[in-house]
Specification:
The protein is of the alpha+beta class. It folds into three domains: 84 residues, Winged helix-like DNA-binding domain superfamily/Winged helix DNA-binding domain (Arc Repressor Mutant, subunit A), CATH 1.10.10.10; 159 residues, Beta-Lactamase; 90 residues, 2-Layer Sandwich (Enolase-like, domain 1). Helices cover 51% and strands 17% of the residues. The strands form three sheets. It has a five-stranded antiparallel sheet with strand order 7-3-10-9-8, sandwiched between helices. A three-stranded antiparallel sheet has the order 4-5-6. Helix 8 packs across helix 10. The longest helix has 27 residues. It is elongated and about 85 Å long.
């Protein structure tokens, strides 16, 4: 039994109800909840003085806090976590929310990227928060790799995948590359690449370079390493983070929060810790909730993140969708929205992949 669960089970019914109503009132309005307000909603008739005593006990437990501007209480991060884990009631997905999400599958622009962009817009509009969508990496086995010189300081790397997809990227090669180095780098990669995905290939290449460093001249080795790095840059289009609805966060922020929200935007622009964003989702099936400092990417802004992974037909996690908002998010409503969206995206991508395989 976790410490939070133990605290909750040791509360008497009155304390548990006061705590629940304070949290629900705060999540609904964003304002501190006072004892007089609770006297009108408690299931038993109790005085405001009695409720204040209960609130003080909850404050001593670290579950509630009292802002200096008000006699009311708001939940702490610990209190929100305990509410989410033990008292929150997850609502059914509303039909209008389901319809708005389903509508993203029938846009005019075809392709996975366009569909995921529409998903991000829909999530943002429905939840009134900022949405995050981490697009899937291309994980098909590689058939062929080729480097093409475009000039003294520019080169093109072309990847042909076994499913017929072709991707290319312009990059800056190391100084001193020659046509022979280009050919040697391509031959080296093709000897290793067939049947391997790009992520499989990266680790194998490093082992081979370490073992065969003398066989590869410096220019070819650097070309292999720099060319491959282009494809593993988490900020590039094959692992793209779509962010929608930033204005929603700004609209909900007070003056003290604005600078922290801007800091969050800066981190998202730089794609900081985005790889970790997917790792968060991979740590468990279904929807996960991170409140405030529980996730370092959002700790400075004091925001909350509701995130769920989506999977391909092989049940492998290939991306994630999520919603960022203030800590007073309506978690009970947003959890089923994020869950449904992730499942829908997974089904769509699995269906498309199957169609390509056929």
């Amino acid at each position: 039994m976790s410490a939070n669960t133990k605290i909750l089970t040791e509360m008497n019914n009155r304390s548990r109800e006061v705590f629940r109503r304070v949290v629900e009132g705060y999540l609904d309005s964003g304002d501190p909840v006072g004892s007089r307000t609770l006297t009108r909603s408690m299931s038993e008739q109790v005085s405001a003085a009695t409720i204040r005593n209960v609130m003080q006990d909850l404050e001593h437990l670290g579950l509630l806090d009292s802002p200096h501007t008000s006699a009311g209480r708001i939940p702490t991060q610990l209190g929100l976590r305990m509410f989410v884990d033990g008292l929150m009631e997850v609502s059914q997905l509303a039909s209008e929310d389901r319809e708005a999400i389903d509508a993203t599958t029938s846009g005019n622009e075809p392709g996975v990227a366009s569909m995921l962009d529409r998903v991000g817009q829909a999530l943002s509009g429905i939840t009134h928060g900022a949405s995050l969508v981490l697009t899937p990496k291309h994980e098909a086995p590689i058939r062929h790799i080729e480097f093409i010189s475009l000039g003294p300081d520019r080169a093109l790397v072309v990847l042909v995948f076994a499913d017929g997809t072709v991707e290319n990227r312009v990059f800056s090669p190391p100084l001193g590359h020659t046509p022979s180095a280009m050919r040697e780098a391509g031959n080296f990669l093709n000897a290793l690449a067939e049947g391997r995905t790009l992520s499989d290939l990266r680790a194998q290449i490093q082992r081979e370079i370490d073992q065969r460093r003398r066989e590869l001249d410096t220019a070819a080795r650097e070309l292999v390493e720099s060319g491959l790095a282009i494809w593993h840059d988490s900020g590039e289009s094959h692992e793209r983070l779509i962010v929608r609805g930033r204005a929603n966060l700004l609209d909900q922020a007070d003056e003290a929060d604005l600078e922290r929200i801007r800091s969050l935007f800066d981190d998202l622009e730089r794609k900081r810790d985005i790889a970790e964003f997917l790792e968060l989702a991979e740590e468990g099936d279904g929807v996960r909730i991170f409140i405030g400092s529980e996730n370092k990417l959002f700790s400075l802004s004091g925001s909350s993140l509701v995130v769920s992974p989506y999977m391909n037909a092989d049940r492998k996690i290939i991306g994630a969708v999520g919603v960022i908002g203030p800590t007073r998010l309506n978690y009970g409503r947003i959890v089923p929205i994020v869950d449904y969206t992730a499942q829908l995206v997974g089904r769509l991508l699995s269906g498309e992949r199957k169609g390509q395989d056929l």
